Amino acid sequence: MILFVLLMCFLLPLSMLLVKPMNILLLGNEYATNLGLNLRRVQTLIIVSSGILVAIVTAYCGPIMFIGMSVPHLARGIFRKSDHRVLMPATMLLGALLALFCNLIARLPGFEGALPVNSVTALIGAPIVAWVLMKRDRS
């Protein structure tokens, strides 16, 4: 657990350094290039940093898929912003709260043993993902 905490304390602030380039990428690739952003480097950094973070979290916590799929959409819907300076911390906080809530539900009294947390996250996250997909089809 100490290694996990140390890696997260190092990698999460580094991922926060990518907030400004991600906000610039919201404007489009051509506009970002005109602003002097090196697209290939920034896209590589975003993919590598998110891949490493996902790999570490999955290795230590297990594959809780619907948290990662639904929480960013949930944060964007709650805060009604596209600014990554707001969305990144909000997603981290909402993801932690949702994981704790799902764990609490999985460990409620009355269940013999404990429900797998994956099943509870699927019950909460699947409707959110379905809502996002249906919303996308309408527009």
Total beta-strand segments: 0
- pLDDT averaged over residues: 86
- Can you write the helix and strand succession as a string? HHHHHHH
- DSSP strand (E) fraction? under 5%
User: With helices defined by DSSP (H or I, 4 residues minimum), what is the helix count?
Assistant: 7
Q: Which stretches of 5+ consecutive residues score pLDDT under 50?
A: none
> How many angstroms separate the termini?
44 Å
Briefly note the structural class of the backbone: mainly alpha
Rg for CA atoms: 17 Å
Q: What is the 3D form?
A: globular
Largest sheet: none
Helix percent reads over 70%
Description:
- There is one protein chain.
- The protein is mostly helical.
- 80% of the residues lie in helices and 0% in strands.
- It has helices at residues 2-16, 19-25, 29-34, 39-61, 65-79, 84-106, 117-138.
- Helix 5 packs across helix 7 and helix 6 (84-106) crosses helix 7.
- The longest helix is centred in the middle third of the chain and has 23 residues, at 39-61.
- The model has no long low-confidence stretch (mean pLDDT 86).
Please outline the helices and strands.
Elements: H1 2-16, H2 19-25, H3 29-34, H4 39-61, H5 65-79, H6 84-106, H7 117-138
